[in-house]
Structure formats: structure tokens, C-alpha cells
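Trying the structure run again after the queue cleared.
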Amino acid sequence: MRASNVLVIEDDTLVARTIERCLRGSEYRVQVVNSGVAGLQAARRKIPDLVLLDVMMPGMDGYTVCKEMREDVLLKDVPIIFLTAKNKVEDKIVGLSVGADDYLGKPFNVDELLLRVKAILRRTRPAEQANAHEKEGATESESKKNPPVPISSDPIVRIGEYTLDTRTYMFSSPKKGKLRLTPIQYTLLYHLMTHPNKIFSPALLLDEVWDYPSDTGSADLVRVHIKNIREAIEEDPKNPVFIKTVQGYGYTIQTED
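Done. C-alpha cells:
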């Protein structure tokens, strides 16, 4: 399996060097740039497998970089992790709403960062991972990660009047119409819609959707993504009818009341 190309967009030299040391090796090829504009240019020259992105940078901030990437047909599916000192919940809401997969606050634990990077790359490069496991001989536990999506003659997943197109990432709701989802929004909705009536705790979603090991990631990550999806698809996001909350347990999509 080829090394993953990781683009680090970070204007703090010390932080950038720390990330580079953490990732540099046979598994990763790391490129560091120190501004948002330079980051976009680098990403367009060579599409990365993952972007680690600071928020507060002179000129073009990280939110703008993320939004620009999500609007670029060549970069829209590249996973993005924000690394930033802006750690308030409202900051996370903004970051995830413009299309980031995850949000890690500074100062960050290097081992935690590495675990999240590995998990996101497992999720977003499953075909290459599967080929590598076949060649190397995967263990049973490894083979259960990233199971192949069943091939169906109908690419549309339907729950009542709600539909998800597995070819285009387009979601359609009866009240809000069509919406193109970010990659992580698509993966989250696909998982919920293909397991109707099952209740998922945030911890279970971190495991099954983000592929994060136990005690990695935050329940806030799930809550903010659910909140952003509800804002986009629900007529009244504060009283959702599609993705429902079961107090004390988690989230579910029901096929019947």
C-alpha cells in the first residue's frame, strides 16, 4: 500500500514541526505549508489523502480554506481535521458545518492525533486497505473494519419520503428538498438509514462511522454533526422528525412511529 499524502496547513512553525515528526515515516508523506492560500495551491497541485488544518491564520483562515475545498470538485472528498486553539462549541459547529470531518483542540495529544489520522484514512481509503490486508493476511478483527458496501441494483436508500443517493451524495427531504452532503455527513446518514430503528450512542457512532478506537474522539463531534445535519434537512431542527434523539441512549431513524 502506498504511503498516505498528508498536507499540513499551519502557520505556527513549532506546531507544524511537531505534527511532521509525529507523522513522518513509511506510512505518510507530509507536506507543510504556512498559509491558507499556499495550502489551497498545494492541494490543487497534488490532491492529498488528508488535510490537517489550522483555523487562525493570516490572510485566508482555515474555515475559508475548508469551504473552498468542499466547493472544489477535485478536493471535495478530501478528509479534513481542524487543529486549532478555538475550542468553544460554537467554533466546532462552524468548523464542522463548513465540511470538516473532525476538530482537535490545541494543545493536542500526539498519540490522539495519530489515532484519528489512522482511523480517518482507514475509512476513506478502504479499497487500498483491503488490498493490503489481502496481501499481508488480515486478522479477523481487522477484516471486520470497513466491510464492503453491498452492491444493489437500486443506488437509492429510502426511509419514507427521505432518500439518499449513494452515487452522488445527494440527500432529499420532503420539506427542504435536495442537499449535497459532505463525505462524513453522507457516511453518518448512510449508516443510520441502513440500520433503521436501531439506537446508536455517540460512542457507538464514533466506533462504527468514524472507526475511532475506544476512548478516542469526543461525543461532541457526533452531536455537532447531527446538529448540522438537522439544520440542513429538518423543517424545525429543534423538533426533528427524521433523526430522533432517544434521551439517555442516542440517535435513531425510525421507519414507523
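Residues 127-151 have pLDDT under 50 and may be disordered. Worth checking whether this holds up in the mutant runs.
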